[in-house]
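Repro case for the chain-ordering regression, as requested:
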Amino acid sequence: MGSLLSYTTYLTWFALSVPGLYLASLIAAHKLGANPVDRMLDFTGTTSLTLLLVALGITPLYRLSLISNPLRVKLRRLIGLGAFWYGLGHLCIYLYFDISLSMAELLKSVAKRPYITAGFSALLILLALALTSGRRRLGLSRQAWDRLHRMVYPAASLAVIHFYMMQKADVRLPVIYGMVFLVLLSLRLIPARLKRGA
Amino acid sequence: MGREFRKQLKDSDVTDYNDFITRKRFLKRGIAALGAIVIPSVYFSVTGCDKNRGQGSRPGQKKFEKNNLLENRSIIRNADYQPDEKLTAPEDATGYNNFYEFSTGKEKVAELAASFQSFPWKVQIDGEVEKKGNYHLEDLIKNEQLEERIYRFRCVEGWSMVVPWVGVSLASVLKRVVPTSKARYVEFTTLYDPEQMPGQKRSVLDWPYVEGLRLDEALHPLAFLAVGLYGKVMPNQNGAPVRLVVPWKYGFKSIKSIVKIRLTKEQPATTWSRLAPDEYGFYANVNPEVDHPRWSQKMERRLGSFSKIETLPFNGYQQEVAGLYNDLDLRRFF
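-- result from build under test --
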């Protein structure tokens, strides 16, 4: 089991690095298209949100007895961290190319632009979750850790809202992400209620 | 296609007598000095050999009739509109298009528009004009001098480009159809044809696309009816065969593939201002001081570039057009 887990770890790391390597190859080959910064923002943002939703799907897989508990813990952590790193990359591209690393501009935008408020809040939550994702959990009790990490749901919903608010007219993609999120959320709520009823 | 390319190059490469005469007439008309007549061969060298222009016929595909609006016509470079700015790469300007009639994905439009049929093309002139009618596009512009003008183009989304349009002054076309004294606005309508324009099968916008100008804006010398880009007929994805270009306004005002021009007494109900009136106004003048409700308009990014530059009032055409809005509160009428 231990070797299977470490094998899974390597495989997951590799899978998580694929979007980044793909983006790097586009940059190296000057294939980012007419609006390279928008392309990078779009790519990293979409990757981050997708990984976040995949991470939310891990526990339902475990509840359906499709994966073991140690595998669940491992996958959830790695994929969640992947979402955080792509989200951080997304923020860095914005900071560097869109606002030239101006902290004043960042604070102004976070205060003034609701879609940036939403995206930035989502990333702050992911930062807290990433910092406490290790084995030591920074001294948090089991319950405190559980409670903190349930914040992944507000983070994902804020990320979907951020995505939705950027669209001019065509909201298909963010609506699809939103529906997937709601399905994943309800998957978590229903078994809990069933347990309580039993 | 190679033949067409050589022919165009030859036509425009030589300053012949006719061009010289046309130039003199232009000077007489008081339109400032016009520069060299040569359509710079540099466009042809950078555009290459029409990789995917969608004009002409290709084996295994539907045969197209050629839109030949530029054939056997002299094109004059208007020296008033030759800004000292780097031109946007043709592959960027023709590969990144907001043209929801085909797709909301800007980089998907060119391919989806490749088989668009832009010839023959009629434009209906209607409303408060004396010479109403359904005109062939070539007839509508045959008596106007084709000019090339390099304009800045600023999208409301925050990207921009600098491109050489080929076309005619909108004012000269409008004057030819003689607006009545009641005309106060001009309404433009894009083709509605979901078979050819697959984006229209979804109701992402309220089709057909409608845009409009106040009559004095439409008669302003900057307002342009473009039928070409980079010295060639208008690529389908950029609004073939004829589109509006109003460079001091956000790009969505510059309506594409126009089939109807109607002069009206009332302000036209334009597509984006109907969809989100708090976000897109009727005027939509480029204005760094008035944010879009969701994002800032202070900066813009030229296509192909990583860095941002400052957006100028009226997209840098303040001197020319600010006078149109002396009595208008530009914050209220954004």
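Ordering looks correct now. The longest helix of chain A spans residues 69-98.
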